[in-house]
Design brief:
Blueprint: H1 2-20, H2 29-40, H3 44-51, H4 57-66, H5 71-91, H6 98-113
Helix pairs in contact: 1-2, 2-3, 5-6
InterPro entries: DUF454
Transmembrane segments: 97-113
GO cellular component, one term: plasma membrane
């Protein structure tokens, strides 16, 4: 039962990651990292395919081995956070507009504390 739940969660994370390739505010790589985590507990074959993927594999391995995020990934995340915060400030009324801005600041600060290896 537990294995089936991890498999379903991995497939869902992979689907959301695939959507993120086309939707600018949905992150792709974090969902693929989550999918690899779930597949490690449910399907070694799917995990191997994902960690061996030419685009996502290096990011997943870098995160697993060192908790690292590439400089390019940090810049992309910061740009997405900035866009989201500006959109919230433009479309929402205070104090609600400050919640996405605070989340962007906290998330962005955390991302920049990760190593880059």
């Amino acid at each position: 039962m537990r294995r089936a739940l991890y498999l379903a969660a991995g497939l869902l994370a992979m689907a959301l990651g695939a959507l993120g390739a086309f939707l600018p505010l949905l992150p792709t790589v974090p969902f693929m990292i989550l999918a690899a985590f779930c597949f490690a507990r449910s399907s070694p074959a799917l995990e191997a395919r994902l960690t061996g993927h030419p685009i996502f594999g290096p990011h997943i391995r870098r995160w697993r081995d060192h908790g690292a995020i590439s400089r390019r990934g940090k810049k992309a995340a910061t740009a997405a956070f900035l866009f989201s915060a500006l959109l919230a400030l433009a479309l929402m009324r205070p104090p609600w507009s400050l919640l996405p801005t605070a989340a962007a600041l906290i998330g962005g600060a955390w991302i920049w504390t990760r190593p880059e290896r």
